Amino acid sequence: MVERQEYVITQLSPLSADISLLLEGAYSDEIASRCLIVVETEAPITQELLEKRVMNSLGIQKIGSRIRTYLDSIIPYILATRERVEGQVIFHTDIREENYYRPQTDGEEQARYSHQIPYTEAMLAIEAIYQDDEKAGRGLLKRELSDRFITELGYTRHGSSLDALFETVFHILRENNVLLKNSSGKFVFH
Q: 13 and 87: one domain?
């Protein structure tokens, strides 16, 4: 059963890293350690958001091409489970089952932007829509499902990145025969 949970942002001790030393590898162990802490707290988490959390904690607000290249050389060696879904790299934790999704809530610090929501988590939000509503169990038109998805994730209106997120996960679920179109043109969760 899919659960709705609150998003918890990792609290990392701030450090003012020297960029030249960072690029020489002086912070490799610190970066790896911080990555594991973030993954354990926030998984599932996209590589983009993981890198942002860690670099921000080191006092680096912008990840340019040199830092991106450096991170690309370190991240694959971090001992965390990861997968690639439709081009998105998602890190998982082994310390708990990931059968939940975490919507944005009013008054909450912006935990992440919609384009940083892992596809696997967005798929669970769609599953939750169907598991919690008898009407949805009989099928939803694509637009109804899209509107419910936006609401389920805690947003009040559509936007291009939310719509793109929905379209991507809708496509994945259709391709894997999880969302099936019934004779009345509505989609049911299988």
A: yes
Q: Is residue 3 part of a domain?
A: no
**How many other CB atoms are found less than 10 A from the CB of residue 101?**
25
| Cross-strand partners of 103 | none
User: Positive or negative CA dihedral for 180, 186, 189, 190?
Assistant: negative
Residues with Cβ within 8 Å of residue 30, at least 6 apart in sequence: 15, 58
Task: Indicate which CATH number applies to the domain containing 170.
Answer: 1.10.10
Phi, psi of 3 (to 5 degrees): -115, 150
Residue 2 belongs to a domain: no
d(C-alpha 131, C-alpha 119), whole Å:
19
- Segment 96-119, tens digit of pLDDT: 888 999 998 665 567 888 999 999
Q: Taking the model in full, what pTM does it have? A: 0.89
